[in-house]
Amino acid sequence: MNKNILIIAPHPDDETLGAGGTAAKLVSQGYKVSVLIVSGHLPPLYTKEAYLKTVEEAKAAFKILGIEDFKFFEIPATLISDTPIHILNKKICDVVEEVNPKIVFTCFPDRHIDHKLIFDSVMVSTRPVGFGKNIEIVAAYETLSETHWNAPHIEANFTPNWVIDISDFMDTKLKALACYESQIPAFPGSRSIKAIEALAIFRGTQSGFGYGEAFEIIRMQS
């Protein structure tokens, strides 16, 4: 039985914001959760020190979530388009093939240009051909401060059709997010701990439980 899960994130913290509770839950059920961080706070827009801090924060968060397998591509944030698309696609394809996941979670194509570009590349990398035939579910997660800022009815809106109960793992998710001291602002910041908890309550009660993480299923086979 394939118990490999792959979370593809644009930047450190997106993986925990969008699917941290789900990751912890799946690890507790014996799944192997792998994370790919495609981009990061690198020069020329950020200092290398800022990037290294986010990497250390990510590793601390992964440890709390139980994630032991992870990769960082080190592509500068907002400059992903400088990488030729065939090279980006190949790099992500190689990770998907290596992990051989049953489920792939990726970012929703929202306000952030990195999210849009990575989403497009993941759609190529998870096509149901070759090793892609082994993928049973491809789903997009929401990322507070970006996913909810798309222009309504002009751009794509996040419309979840799958909510995972993370009630027993909400504390774990919040502890992991707290590791991102450089990224998580105080309330009323849009990705503050209080805002993240509020979204989880909203998504959970939409589906009849306490806390939830919502996803939009892109492709599913059974």
What characteristics describe this protein?
Rossmann fold; alpha/beta; 222 residues
As a percent range, the share of strand residues is 15-25%
Return the domain count.
Answer: 1
Q: Could you say what the CATH architecture is?
A: 3-Layer(aba) Sandwich
CATH topology: Rossmann fold
Lateral arrangement of strands in the main beta sheet: 3-2-1-4-5-7-6
Elements, N to C (H/E): EHEHEHEHEEHHE
Q: Specify the structural class.
A: alpha/beta
Unreliable parts: none
CATH superfamily: LmbE-like
Note the gap between the termini.
Answer: 13 Å
**What is the number of strand segments?**
7
- Helix % is 25-40%
| Largest β-sheet summary | 7 strands, mixed
Number of helices: 6
Main CATH class:
Alpha Beta
Rg from C-alpha positions? Answer: 16 Å
Strand and helix layout:
Blueprint lengths: L3 E6 L4 H15 L3 E9 L7 H18 L3 E8 L8 H15 L3 E5 L5 H13 L11 E5 L20 E4 L4 H9 L14 H14 L5 E9 L2
Parallel strand pairs: 1-2, 1-4, 2-3, 4-5
Antiparallel strand pairs: 5-7, 6-7
